[in-house]
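Quick check before the chapter quiz. The format below is the same one you will see on the exam, so make sure you can read both the input and the output lines.
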Amino acid sequence: MSDEASSAIPPESDALLKAYFMARYRPLLGVLMSSCRGLSRDDAEEVLMDIFVDASKKVWKSEEDIAKYFGMVVKRRGWSRARSDRQRALRELSYESKNRDIGPADPAAAVLAKERGKELRDIMDQLKPADRMLATLIALGLTPQERAGYLEIKAGTERVRTTRLRERLAKLVGERKEGQQ
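Here is the expected output.
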């Protein structure tokens, strides 16, 4: 594979890429949709087409070169697209929450919402800083792989910490309920 300075791509290279892409379109689409949480079929197809367009600008000498290229690029671009979609949704949510009348019209509901917020803060304050960070990442909707990457830990470690966090939270909530009775 090499980038071609001129726009003349040999027909053999173009035919090789098209044959590879047509033969592996569905499996590649499946890989994208299964490994990139939150990526719709339309988005996955768009990612594949973008990769194909980029690949069509290169000269390919073998199907093996094409397979290596797609193997490197498919998941990375899918994750990037899914992450940017989630970040855009979070920005929109943040914008909407800042620009709307927040709070219930019913004063009793406002008091209840304030009490629940205080309860949540109290519970979070009882957690270790590492657990608070993990709970925040979960609340933001990050995938387990993204959380592990952000925390710079292995995926298995992230799963164990998430399980233990859930157990601690269940215990803390149970204790609060018992104390209120």
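If your answer matched, good. Residues 105-180 form a domain with the Arc Repressor Mutant, subunit A fold (CATH 1.10.10.10).
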